Amino acid sequence: MYGQALEPVHAFCKENSHNKEAPNQQNKLCNRKSTWEVIMNSPDMKTSTPLANTNIPDPTFSLLQFKDRVVTLVLDVSGSMGSFDRIARLYQASEVYIMQIVESGSHVGIVTFSDVATVQSQLVKIVDTFQREKLKQLLPKVAGGGTTICAGVRSGFEVNKGYDGSTYGTEIVLLTDGEDSGISSCHEEVRTSGAIIHTIALGDKADPGLEQLANITGGLRLSVTDKVDTNGLIDSFSRIISGNGDTIQQSVQIESTATTIPPNQCLTGKVTIDNTVGNDTFFLVTWTSAIPGIVLRDPKGKEYKDGQFVSDATSKSARLTIPGTAEKGDWQYSLCNTPSGEQVLGFTVNSRAANPNVAPIIAEAYMNADTASFPSPIIVYAIVTQGFSPVLGTKVTATIEAQDGTIKTLELLDNGAGADIIKNDGIYSRYFTSYKGNGRYNLKVHVENQEKDSKATGPKSGALYLPGVIKNGTLFANPPKPKPNIEDLNLGNFSRTASGGAIIVFGVPSGPLPDVFKPSKISDLSAFFESSLVVLTWTATGDDEDEGNATRYDLRMSLSSELVDNFENGTAINISSLTPSPSGSTEVFRFTLRDITIKNGTVLYFVLVAIDKVNQTSDPSNLARAAFFLPAPESGNSANSILGTGNTLILTLVMTIITFYL
Asked: Rg of the chain over CA atoms, in angstroms?
């Protein structure tokens, strides 16, 4: 399908015409099945009834036009919001959203709900700080009453109609911590509204049907626990940016961290303002008990202390906004706790693009599904880009927080192995298998490049270039293939954080979990001859999918390409001397073959499986092929004089193992 210029391509390949040996993505990802086999085995084809009437209806077109962003905050102020300091955290995070995150030119309203819904503010167009301050004063500070989610949603719709009389294309940010047995009563209104509802589930008792409102409307599904040392609520609000694709106007989260600090101890670190951002930059310090001592030093050594920050006792935060464009480079910070007792201190940095003609570096995070049933693994993704260019070579760390507050940290990789499909495409991936019970799991990623060679590389076409075509026996030459712009842009130091939403997990058994996750498939096995040696290389897999270390390998060889379908019938190669390396490492295995006659043109096929500590085996790897060809004989030096009569080579067993660690 990559050869669009080939005229004979008029149908999907079938089993009898598919080339199973081609080293392409079709064979790698679809287990060597043809396109038509994949289609016929898809759920759509298996579960759909063929149409009796093949008349295709006439298409309809809708002309859409860009308009201002319209968003209403619909906030739960029921009695349960008074526990775990939730109402204060709500005020703090929504204040950040109004003051710094929502884009200028947006129309913003506020609705609160408990037993009934109350409009706190009709739509206000954000022009400058005056409107932001006005809205901030209307944010809720007191909790009480029951929970009627649909009343809040309906009120939000009415507020959004204040823009042009319609809810179509408008947004609602819906936050709640409670359950409402009547939440399904407004599903049809939500479905026909044309609005987008972003949901934030706060705590472990938020209504299990909340995410359905986001699913119906295509909104974000966000989840926050009651742990305040993760900055989860601020991160969730920071994620809700405009979806119009204008990254120049969007707020970019540079840093977000929080931790519990003992008395008289300090939270220190640095954050980098890179070349792509710097406008509308703010540094936010948060606390849970008392304002800490603050020292912020810019790259030129200028210091900003707590007296220069604008503090707000209600939101328990202090903000420093940098006028113009912030200095490029590393900003050092130190937040020192008071002697009175330990507390959680947080530090958040947001900025916008420095140049309207230069796209900022953006990080996005998500998971492969909205729900997961144990023991299905979850795939975690992070996309790092600058404009349309993928950003390569950066360190990406994912934090997955279970509903009970348990945290699992994973390094995401862009190596084309395990959960990652394509190497060096700017999409970093990893499997998550560390389940800690049922409920919501939320995701956050941190992207960092410090003293590494991260670079943005231009997108490259995957289409096949044809130098010419033959029509009716006549060759028609095509223009020369244009040279792509392959200059990579070194990006220097930078950092980003991003919330990746929530996934709902069910079916996790109580008690210790069984080891049910096998090693992930090795998908990049390659083989070649190096003089008299056969060399195999691959990326190490893990014990549980692509995490940890496999226990051992099983390597098979054959003269037939059917080896991948008949693995057990292949010739076993002794690979016991190789101890599997940590997942993601590059492994090299060199050996010669015992009592095997290799002739000119001999082709050997190899398949590898990994085995974990409870003897679970991975799926067979991709099919690797090594072909032995003799060079053309030079004058006075024949192949026979090198190899002996018959052009054969008798090989004996020798092994060399090399392991590279990332």
From this structure: 30
- Give the pLDDT confidence score for residue 221 in this predicted structure: 97
- For the domain with range 66-224, which CATH number is right: 3.40.1080.10, 3.30.1460.30, 3.40.190.170, 3.40.50.410? 3.40.50.410
Mean pLDDT of the 574-588 span: 95
* Cβ atoms within 10 Å of 16's Cβ, excluding its own: 7
Q: Per residue in 324-349, pLDDT tens? A: 999 999 999 999 999 989 999 999 99
Burial of 409 per CB tally in 10 Å (0-12, 13-18, 19+):
exposed
Query: Which tops the pLDDT comparison, 244 or 506?
Result: 506
Average pLDDT over residues 200-225: 95
Can the peptide bond before residue 375 be classed as cis, meaning omega within 30 degrees of 0?
yes
Contacts of 504 (CB under 8 A, 6+ apart): 208, 211, 370, 371, 372, 439, 440, 441
The CATH code of domain 245-358 reads 2.60.120.380
pLDDT for residue 638 is more than 50: no
Question: Do 361-453+488-506 and 526-632+640-660 show the same overall fold?
Answer: yes
Question: For the chain, first and last CA: distance in Å?
Answer: 34
Tens-place pLDDT, residues 252-300? 999 999 999 999 999 999 999 999 999 999 999 999 999 999 999 999 9
For the CA atoms of 139, 142, 148, 151, the dihedral, rounded to the nearest 10 degrees, stands at -30
Cα(531)–Cα(9) distance, rounded to whole angstroms? 40
Instruction: Provide the CATH topology of domain 526-632+640-660.
Output: Immunoglobulin-like (2.60.40)
For residue 642, pLDDT over 60 is answered with no
Domain ranges of the chain: 1-36, 66-224, 245-358, 361-453+488-506, 526-632+640-660
What is the model's pLDDT at position 657? Answer: 39
CA nearest to 229, candidates 82, 403, 345: 345
The number of residues making up the chain comes to: 662
Q: Which of 32, 116, 131 is nearest to 78 (CA)?
A: 116
Contact present, 381 and 514 (Cβ < 8 Å):
no
Report the alpha-carbon angle 446-450-454, nearest 5: 85
Query: What mean pLDDT is predicted for residues 50-65?
Result: 84
List the one residue out of 558, 652, 654 whose CA is nearest residue 606.
558
Tokens of 586: 């590059």
CATH for 361-453+488-506?
Answer: 2.60.40.1930
Answer whether residue 247 shows pLDDT above 80.
Answer: yes
